[in-house]
Amino acid sequence: MKIYQALVGGQWKVSSSERFLPSYNPYNQEEWAQIPLLTNEEISEAVECAHRSFKEWKNMSGLDRATLLHRLSDLIEEHADYLAEIESTDNGKVIRETKNQILFTARNYRYFAGYADKLLGEAIPLDNRELLDYTIMEPIGVVALITAWNSPLPLLANKLAPALATGNTVVIKPSEHASISTLEFARLIEKAGFPAGVVNVVTGDGKAGDALIRHPLVGKVSFTGGTQTAQVISRAVSEKLIPITLELGGKSPNIIFEDADIDEAVIGAVAGIFGASGQTCIAGSRLLVQRSILEIVKQALVEKTNKIKLGNPLDSETEMGPVANINQFNKIIGMIEEAKNQGAILLCGGKSSENSNLKGFYIEPTIFYTENPKVNIACEEVFGPVLTILPFDSVEEAIHLANDSVYGLAAGIWTRDIKKAHRLAQQIEAGTVWINTYRTSQVGTPFGGIKQSGFGRERSWHTLYEYTHMKNIMVNLSDNKRDPFSMQTK
Ligand code: NAP
């Protein structure tokens, strides 16, 4: 079993309390590693280190920051197989997905490396020609980055790449359920040659995260996780009045119209809900199907779902791994039972796996059908391999059902009618709308939610503004004396 250390100010350390948290492999339920449970003092030390390193990092040329970020991307690519294996061992995601995601992670750092020396301000022409005015983008300072367990490294890249490119220093707190890949990744940060203290990784449970975000020297929080935790964090951060980015959960509608390519739409529905065992914020967990094609879609979907290959996440043939931890397993099984009690019709799955070779937290890919959009399984985030199918008759009803949610993260539309697709895309309340595709990501596109799915954007150049202040600088070029008792507006 491996015992890991946290990275604080360039030093690897265990906790002075000598306490550790276990990390379990969800495939076999065995403890395979331990992470230090840092004390509040040690978390504070990490923030202070980041604060001390801020001046050097922010004043480094954009080109030098870019060079380091490119070097980091090279190292991630070089170590992609290893990092993917670690990620799959820690959270049970299938290796065919984690390998892909690690390369996507490298791409993300490369994307923002390209911006590190292009943080442009603008010269603003004013009414008064004797005033010179321009803006500059300035880093915020120490940023706390808190990530969820479902995709630790890709989620981190969404935050860390723009934070570093724009000149911030950071303290990262990964989830206690999957911290190992972040700690292994931190070794690459060191190897790439980032100055000590620019990137710090602290480990522990939710209390460690709480101590981090409350620290007076933390100037911004970027959080990926559940809506309830986000509410707790928002309350704490509101005392300090610092900016916050929240990437939260969803109950995303995936809408299939009768004029869709049904084969493609069914594959899209499977990708939307059974990719990553449904443990993805963008899971297309509500499948809205036009009534005229309901039976065909149900049948095709159940047929495909029953063939999904559950197995060892490290086997490249495996299509669905276990869910990531015991809490998640119990929650999902509980929601399946509740759905049955509330009258949702079980079309397939609905149990933990009966394959006796699989000892981990396996749940069969599960599909419910209901005409009642108010049953819990149709409105609450499961964060597991459970799909709910709901029928609709008209476009208006599809829009109403799609928007009848507290969440607004993503949505999918399947139709051959391109005009209808674009009209609908504009009316759907979500941060991302996919047309004739689902769960397709690119680093250049802004990603984030509305409503209880959070606010702020990740990936894309827009994210540069999440990690900078815009400063306006005005210069008087005139020799005229002004009236000191009246604001100068001309
Ligand atoms: P979570 O329980 O909210 O935890 C998220 C992170 O917050 C973990 O690192 C957790 O640490 C930490 N944390 C817990 N309490 C805290 C506190 N009081 N102060 C500061 N940090 C605290 O969420 P999760 O179960 O890990 O992740 C699942 C959720 O994340 C789902 O709702 C999913 O939809 C959402 N998600 C959203 C996105 C997106 O981009 N929109 C992406 C992925 C996941 P511990 O784990 O150590 O307690």
Descriptive terms for the model:
21% strand, 490 residues, seven-stranded mixed β-sheet, single chain, alpha/beta, Aldehyde Dehydrogenase, Chain A, domain 2, binds NADP nicotinamide-adenine-dinucleotide phosphate, six-stranded mixed β-sheet, Aldehyde Dehydrogenase, Chain A, domain 1
Brief account:
The chain has 490 residues and is of the alpha/beta class. The protein is built from 14 helices and 22 strands. It has 2 domains: 2-247 and 460-474, 3-Layer(aba) Sandwich (Aldehyde Dehydrogenase, Chain A, domain 1); 253-435, Aldehyde Dehydrogenase, Chain A, domain 2, CATH 3.40.309.
Word description of this protein:
With 490 residues, the protein is of the alpha/beta class. The chain has 2 domains: 2-247 and 460-474, Aldehyde Dehydrogenase, Chain A, domain 1 (3-Layer(aba) Sandwich), CATH 3.40.605.10; 253-435, Aldehyde Dehydrogenase, Chain A, domain 2 (3-Layer(aba) Sandwich). 38% of the residues lie in helices and 21% in strands. The protein has 14 helices and 22 strands. The chain has a 7-stranded mixed sheet with strand order 14-15-16-13-12-18-19, sandwiched between helices. A 6-stranded mixed sheet has the order 9-8-7-10-11-21, sandwiched between helices. α3 (80-91) packs across α4 (95-116), α3 (80-91) packs antiparallel against α6 and α4 (95-116) packs parallel to α5 (152-165). The longest helix is centred in the first third of the chain and has 22 residues, at 95-116. Residues 146-150, 155, 173-177, 205-206, 209-210, 213, 224-226, 229, 232-233, 247-250, 281, 381, 383, 409, 449 line the site of NADP nicotinamide-adenine-dinucleotide phosphate.
